[in-house]
Amino acid sequence: MTTDLPVVLITGTSSGIGLETAIGAARAGLHVVATMRDPGRGTALRRAAEEAGVAGRIEVRPLDVTDAASARACVAAVAADHGRLDAVVNNAGAGRVGTLELDGVARAREVMEVNFFGVLTVTEAAMPHLRAARGRLVTVTSVGGVVGQPFNEAYCAAKFAVEGFMESLHPVAAGLGVAVTVVEPGAVASEFARTAGAGDGLEERAEQSGPYGPALRAYLARTAEAFASAQSAADAAAVIVGVLGADRPPLRVQTSERARAFTGLKLADLDGSAVTGLTAGWVA
């Protein structure tokens, strides 16, 4: 079952950026191991692969990023079956709109488990194979991994942690031949908004949020406006595929000009006033 094509494992491929990255990587000539917690949700990916003429380069396998045994088993099986693992794209994640007083610490732990520890779990399993291949480790974070955003406390905390981890790992991995990159999308038109709680039911939650209600409603109105002009998942995925094929991929790359401007605001904001001056307007 070995292949002469470079092999990339991508997490969270049932929809959105993950699905489009799988299709784009296959079109670019990679053999794609598209993983998801429930392979039964792979219908859309399989259909898209058939329509794109790349079904022979995509296989779907189960992988739950919150289960270390699942991650180890999947990565080991891929390496054994194909004789190689050249790249990993950590894409699986889940958002959460809320605030600590209302949600509690347990909810924040759940968000961290998927978005931070899930990335570490897959990365740990993959690193020996990536070292052997002198390969690529690409992790989809968010502009929310650079700029803290109202009512996204747990999500941004997790993405900040991922950014710090990967920035710290970058020089160590580079010395062993593994290129580490974080990819930072802004608003993307996909199903992710619903997993973040940004869909049906939020107005009801705002009504039940007591003193936080007015600020939450203001935030939701601003977010709806942002997603009305969101980048497509295919465009965001094209940036990830570009990183996979780049000769010297950077540590950090954004998927749109809007995302570059937003993250650039933070990276040049030494005292924090520019960021907080902006985000305060989101909840006024």
Describe the model.
By secondary structure, the protein is α/β, with parallel strands linked by helices. The protein has 12 helices and 9 strands. A 7-stranded parallel β-sheet has the order 3-2-1-4-5-6-9, sandwiched between helices. A two-stranded parallel ribbon has the order 7-8. Helix 3 packs parallel to helix 5. The chain is globular and about 60 Å long. The model has no long low-confidence stretch (mean pLDDT 93).
- Amount of beta strand: 5-15%
Q: How are helices and strands ordered from N to C? A: EHEHEHEHHEHEEHHHEHEHH
The major β-sheet equals: 7 strands, parallel
Mean pLDDT equals 93
- Radius of gyration from the CA trace? 19 Å
**Ends distance:** 58 Å
Query: In terms of quaternary structure, what is this?
Result: single chain
Helical coverage, percent range? 40-55%
Number of continuous helical runs: 12
Which keywords apply here?
9 strands; 52% helix; two-stranded parallel sheet; 284 residues; 7-stranded parallel sheet; globular; alpha/beta
Quick summary:
The chain has helices at 16-27, 43-52, 68-82, 100-103, 105-133, 153-174, 192-195, 202-207, 213-228, 233-245, 257-267, 273-279, and strands at 7-10, 31-36, 58-62, 87-90, 136-140, 179-184, 188-189, 231-232, 252-254. It has 284 residues and is of the alpha/beta class.
